[in-house]
């Protein structure tokens, strides 16, 4: 569907570019402040991980909102930003992964990490998001076709489950944050699935695949 | 490799260290502004002030890779009684009153006693020792602590032959320490040592750090320091020591028995179920992990305590 309506202030790309780089600026600020993080690697791992998880959940919330709030316009407008949000999720995940690799710098240690669910779940989620990022260009959507593209991109829910698990295993204490984030998402997803107005999409011309 | 001394980026020369007066005057400026707003302007009372200045015990004066900057030692703390955020503890613990503070020693002993911490220091005297400090989260520090050997306290209490373990109990003050609201944990914090571990010459009762009374965030006014064990064994702000016959339950072994055992000896060969313990990151460094040493480098002093024990079973 094409919205011919006037662009709202929050739809401008500039605003999104700034908003999505704000976390990085915030961390940089911390490093140049009077009290830089005592354990910079731990700080960056936690921060990039959290940014990635929040972005992932935000990206995934758009569809349930669109279906559960059909009378509102903003979820539909927000849906136009879903690819940008998804790619940003991948960017922060990549940063997270890169810092992890720099911290190991040892192939043997990385292999050993793969034997632990905590680290393996992270690896797998990163891999999935990578595939999704690579197949998110207009050309790839066209090449795969809307239906196949949508089917492939449903693995994002697997990535979300892995990210949730990764976050739970990270905690030495109560994983409240993960439970609230992913619990909320699961509730909305359940609502979306059980929603009486939800009809199966006509095959081929799915609305969830962005228009090339 | 560990013994070749190369200057790490966190090994600041003394000349680059912010003078304490500058540090505190910055702090003070912030604090007086806040205090004026809130009209509660008292500086934190620091309890155990007796015994300073201290002299360094030459037998524990090796600086290993170099002392961790004081600002990091007093600004990066695991103290869940205040918050789980290590860099917020210092601020949240500010203004917490630890004066006066009485330690109670009881249980299977001939001489149970209650004593003010300053009295204890006056009786036993304190000295400075540099110890390596290794957290179970795989970060580490090198810290000059001030304190007295736990063995002196054990001798004073004079345990009965049935006494096999020591139970340490920390404070409980939900009104002044916001972390107690987190009822997920079975407060108060508890730890334990075997009697022979407590008598080991390395076991230190600490009342100071960097030659000054312990700041609140480091476990004022009296904490334990057992450098061959993971940091969580070194219980902070102790109010009671009980001599018991059975192995005491500790907070972490009650919470997650498969991850945190009673012994918790630093051991690169026994991994945490979720992460490796083979290496550690000195606090303040970036990508310069170092190898973790068995018993945190104190093998000669403590290995005999665990002779014949399967350390992967008794983790």
Strand content of chain B: 15-25%
Q: What is the makeup of the main sheet of chain B?
A: 7 strands, mixed
For the record, give the distance between the C-alpha atoms at the N and C termini of chain B, rounded to a whole number: 27 Å
Q: What is the helix tally of chain A?
A: 10
Q: Please tally the β strands of chain B and state the result.
A: 12
Shape of chain B: globular
State the order of secondary-structure elements of chain A, H for helix, E for strand. HHHHHHHHHH
SS field, number of helical segments of chain B: 8
* N-end to C-end Cα span of chain A: 13 Å
User: Could you tell me the radius of gyration of chain A in angstroms?
Assistant: 19 Å
Coarse structural class of chain A: mainly alpha
Q: Which spans of chain A have pLDDT < 50 for at least 5 consecutive residues? A: 203-207
Q: What general outline of chain A do the C-alpha atoms trace? A: globular
Mean pLDDT of chain A, nearest integer? 89
List the secondary-structure elements of chain B in sequence, H or E: HHHEEHEEHEEHEEEEHEEH
Describe this protein's structure.
The complex is a heterodimer of chains A (212) and B (315). The model of chain A is unreliable at 203-207 (pLDDT under 50). The longest helix of chain A has 29 residues, at 40-68. By secondary structure, chain A is an all-alpha fold. Chain A is built from 10 helices and no strands. In chain A, helix 2 packs antiparallel against helix 4 (82-104) and helix 6 (117-134) runs antiparallel to helix 9. Chain A has helices spanning 13-32, 40-68, 74-79, 82-104, 107-113, 117-134, 138-144, 146-153, 156-170, 176-194. With 315 residues, chain B is of the alpha+beta class. Chain B is built from 8 helices and 12 strands. In chain B, the strands form 2 sheets. In chain B, strands 3, 4, 7, 8, 9, 11 and 12 form a 7-stranded mixed sheet that branches. Chain B has a 5-stranded mixed sheet with strand order 2-1-10-5-6. The longest helix of chain B has 19 residues, at 20-38. Chain B is globular and about 45 Å long. The chains are: A mainly alpha (212), B alpha+beta (315). The interface between A and B is medium-sized, with 22 and 25 residues.
């Amino acid at each position: 569907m094409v919205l011919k309506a006037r662009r709202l202030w929050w739809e401008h790309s500039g605003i999104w570019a700034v908003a999505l780089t704000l976390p990085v600026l915030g961390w940089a600020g911390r490093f140049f402040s009077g009290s830089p993080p005592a354990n910079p690697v731990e700080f960056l791992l936690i921060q990039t991980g959290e940014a990635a998880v929040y972005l992932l959940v935000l990206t995934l919330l758009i569809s349930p909102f669109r279906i559960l709030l059909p009378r509102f316009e903003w979820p539909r407008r927000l849906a136009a930003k879903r690819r940008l949000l998804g790619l940003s999720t991948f960017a922060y995940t990549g940063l997270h992964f890169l810092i992890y690799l720099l911290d190991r710098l040892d192939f043997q240690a990385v292999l050993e990490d793969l034997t632990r669910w905590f680290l393996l779940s992270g690896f797998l989620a990163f891999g999935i998001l990578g595939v999704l990022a690579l197949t998110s260009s207009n050309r790839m959507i066209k090449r795969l076709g809307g239906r196949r593209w949508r089917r492939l991109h449903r693995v994002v829910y697997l990535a979300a489950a892995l990210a949730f698990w990764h976050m739970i295993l990270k905690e030495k204490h109560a994983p409240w944050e993960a439970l609230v984030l992913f619990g909320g998402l699961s509730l909305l997803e359940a609502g979306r699935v059980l929603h009486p107005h939800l009809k199966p999409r006509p095959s081929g011309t799915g609305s969830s695949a962005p228009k090339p | 490799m560990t013994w070749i001394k190369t200057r790490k980026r966190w090994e600041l020369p003394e000349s680059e260290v912010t003078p304490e007066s500058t540090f505190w005057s910055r702090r003070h400026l912030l604090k007086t502004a806040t205090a004026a707003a809130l009209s509660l302007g008292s500086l934190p009372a620091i309890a155990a002030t007796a015994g300073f200045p201290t002299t360094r015990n030459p037998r524990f004066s090796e600086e290993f890779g170099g002392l961790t900057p004081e600002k990091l030692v007093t600004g990066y703390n695991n103290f869940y009684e205040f918050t789980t955020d290590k860099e917020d503890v210092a601020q949240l613990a500010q203004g917490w009153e630890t004066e006066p503070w009485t330690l109670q020693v009881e249980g299977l002993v001939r001489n149970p006693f209650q004593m003010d911490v300053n009295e204890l220091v006056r009786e036993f005297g304190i000295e400075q020792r540099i110890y390596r400090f290794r957290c179970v989260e795989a970060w580490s520090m090198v810290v000059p602590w001030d304190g007295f050997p736990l063995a002196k306290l054990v001798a004073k209490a004079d345990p009965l032959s049935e006494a096999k373990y020591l139970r340490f109990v920390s404070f409980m003050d939900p009104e002044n320490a916001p972390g107690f609201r987190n009822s997920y944990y079975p407060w108060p914090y508890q730890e334990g040592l075997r009697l022979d571990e407590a008598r080991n010459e390395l076991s230190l009762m600490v009342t100071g750090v960097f030659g000054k009374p312990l700041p609140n965030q480091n476990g004022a006014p009296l904490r334990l320091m057992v450098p061959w064990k993971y940091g969580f064994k070194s219980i902070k702000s102790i109010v009671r020591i009980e001599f018991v016959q059975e192995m005491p339950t500790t907070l972490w072994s009650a919470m997650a028995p498969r991850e945190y055992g009673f012994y918790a000896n630093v051991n690169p060969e026994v991994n945490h179920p979720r992460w490796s313990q083979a290496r550690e990151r000195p606090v303040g460094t970036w990508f310069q992990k170092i190898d973790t040493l068995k018993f945190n480098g104190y093998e000669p002093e403590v290995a005999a305590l665990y002779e014949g024990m399967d350390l992967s079973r008794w983790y």
